[in-house]
Specification:
Length: about 110
C-alpha cells in the first residue's frame, strides 16, 4: 500500500515540473514582450505633426504627416521621406500643443 502511494507521487512530479517551467517562461519572457509591444503600439499611434522621432535605422527626423500606415518625416530642410509606422523606434521630443488645443483637452477631461 505504501509503495503504491510513492509511485503515484513520483508519476505526478514530471508533470508538475513541466507546468512550473511554462509558468516561469510566461512571467519571464512572454509577459514582458507583450508589455513592450503594447507600449510601442501606443507610441506609434500617438505620433503627431512636429514630433521629433528616431527610426529603427537610427535616422532622426521631424514628423510632417501621419497616415494610417505611414509617417512622413522631414530629415533635412526640404527633404521628406516616408516610413511605415512600425519603423519608428522612439519619440525624442513631443511637439508642443497650441494653447487652444490644450484648453480643449482640459475641458474634455472635465466633462
Amino acid at each position: 500500500m505504501l509503495l503504491a502511494q510513492e509511485n503515484s507521487a513520483s508519476n505526478f512530479t514530471p508533470i508538475l515540473m513541466i507546468v512550473l517551467l511554462f509558468g516561469v517562461m510566461y512571467f519571464m519572457m512572454i509577459r514582458p514582450q507583450q508589455k513592450r509591444r503594447r507600449e510601442a503600439a501606443s507610441m506609434q499611434s500617438s505620433l503627431g505633426h512636429g514630433d521629433e522621432v528616431v527610426t529603427i535605422g537610427g535616422l532622426y527626423g521631424t514628423v510632417t504627416g501621419v497616415d494610417d500606415e505611414t509617417v512622413l518625416l522631414e530629415v533635412a530642410p526640404g527633404v521628406e521621406t516616408r516610413y511605415a509606422r512600425p519603423a519608428i523606434a522612439r519619440v525624442v521630443t513631443k511637439a508642443e500643443q497650441p494653447a487652444e488645443a490644450a484648453a480643449d483637452d482640459a475641458d474634455a477631461i472635465k466633462e
